[in-house]
Design brief:
Blueprint lengths: L1 E5 L7 H4 L3 E5 L4 H10 L4 E4 L3 H10 L5 E7 L2 E2 L14 H4 L3 E5 L3 H5 L7 E5 L4 H8 L4 E6 L8 H15 L5 E2 L1 H11 L5 H4 L4 H8 L3 H7 L9 E4 L2 E4 L7
Parallel strand pairs: 1-8, 1-9, 2-7, 2-8, 3-6, 4-6
Antiparallel strand pairs: 4-5, 10-11
Helix pairs in contact: 6-7, 7-8, 10-11
Length: 243
């Protein structure tokens, strides 16, 4: 297996992802939201780039029961049902629902991946489940969503954590970016909060009152599911891919 890493959404190019398996990572917090909500029974996510696109899907209708969800500058969007705090996506709120999600970083990345062979979602919350489903792939690209078109350490360390797990099970060739991130991760892999203590996005969330979200998102292997793209929607593909 060959592993490469794209450090932030605006660095995505078709030639870097064409016909490859792509794993999108937005630890704080969109990918953690997706994993949590699908584990709690949500039917699907429709990731969109803009608030206007979200409302357009609702207006067009499809028979689904929609939830409007997302954030701008870490805060819930006015008029939406849910923000970007994963612990708010409880079974009582999301079971059987289709969630239209727009966020500052993660949904932008997801809408730039039409050249990919497969697209999955990664977070600390589902590392082992994701690794199980990457075992048969020969070329994997981790797309770190980043923060406002800048590198974000939390996403990068999650990519490194997944790489580390894959290395324990099969032969891996890494790009220089993947190797550099892995070395940084191994320096303090058993204490993610300490490893990321000075990172910008983590501290932005804490300043804005989302410290509980940070602690939640930095847990490893809470859920045994893998979100993946099926046409224009993210669904739980755990039962559709071989272990």
């Amino acid at each position: 297996m060959r592993i490469d890493v794209i450090p932030y959404a605006s660095a995505i190019r078709p030639d870097l992802i064409r016909d490859r398996t792509v794993v999108v990572i937005d630890v704080l917090r969109a990918s953690s939201v997706m994993v949590t909500a699908l584990a709690n029974g949500a039917r699907a996510f429709i990731p969109v780039e803009t608030v206007e696109a979200a409302y357009e899907i609702v207006r067009e209708g499809s028979g689904d029961e929609f939830i409007l969800a997302g954030e701008r500058d870490t805060q819930m969007i006015d008029g939406f049902h849910l923000g970007n705090s994963p612990m708010d996506y409880t079974p009582e709120k999301v079971k059987g629902k289709t969630i239209i999600l727009t966020t500052s970083n993660g949904t932008k990345a997801l809408n730039m991946l039409t050249a990919a062979n497969k697209v999955m979602i990664g977070a600390f919350l589902n590392i082992d489940a994701l690794v199980n489903r990457l075992m048969e792939d020969s070329e994997v690209v981790f797309v770190c969503s980043g923060t406002n078109n800048n590198f974000s350490m939390d996403d990068a360390m999650c990519a490194a954590a997944i790489t580390d797990k894959l290395m324990q099970r099969k032969s891996i060739k890494m790009s220089d970016m993947a190797l550099t991130l892995l070395k940084a991760y191994k320096s303090e892999e058993d204490n993610l909060r300490h490893l990321l203590r000075d990172s910008y996005h983590l501290n932005l969330l804490i300043r804005n009152g989302f410290e509980k979200d940070v602690d939640y998102c930095l847990q490893k292997n809470v859920y045994d599911i893998v979100p993946g793209m099926n046409k224009d929607r993210l669904i739980n593909i755990s039962e559709r891919l071989p272990n």
